[in-house]
Amino acid sequence: MNHRSCLSSPKRHTGFTLIELVVVIIILGILAVVALPKFMNLSEDAHVAVVSGTGGAFKSGINLAHSVWAVRVGSGPAENLPTFGDSEAGEMDFNDAGWPAQHYFTDDEVSPKLDNVDDCISVWVTIFAGDDLTVSSSTSTDETEYKANYIPLHQCRYDYADNLNLSISYDSRNGSVTVDKDPSN
């Protein structure tokens, strides 16, 4: 005689218990607290990289413009020198030392000088012609990536809008371009 056991086999439970779920949530919370500062630091590193790359491109543009001046003029100031293309937008004014000083279609000057925030903006716009790197004066409420400041004598500082501690500085007296890459200073 074959008897079947009246006892049923234990049921298999699938899924997580409430305690296991709580433990997993706590572990994920701890990992998030530990990882969040690292991701925040990556964002800061990305901003530093953007400003470093922009500063390098700006320096290359300044050097290229100076080279054009050296080949076409050689010494002394130059007004409306075609530098980046054949259109008026690519013309630039150079100071006595042959460094970009401004860009205007009018107001001929015997010896152009970089001496106000509009000059700083005009140099930036001409160097980055066709690119989407936007700039405005530091007092402007326009949403731009960089804010231009004139620094006496004949210098510009372009502050990065996402972190005003990051900046690019240009000295038109000697063509030097420096990048401040310290986001905390």
Automatic annotation (TrEMBL):
Gene3D superfamilies membership: Glycoprotein, Type 4 Pilin (3.30.700.10)
Coiled coil (UniProt feature): none
Domain of life of the native organism: Bacteria
Entry keyword set: Membrane, Transmembrane, Transmembrane helix
Transmembrane segments: 15-36
SUPFAM superfamilies from the UniProt entry: Pili subunits (SSF54523)
InterPro entries in the cross-refs: N_methyl_site, Pilin-like
A Pfam family reported for this protein in Swiss-Prot or TrEMBL: N_methyl
UniProt name for this protein: Prepilin-type N-terminal cleavage/methylation domain-containing protein
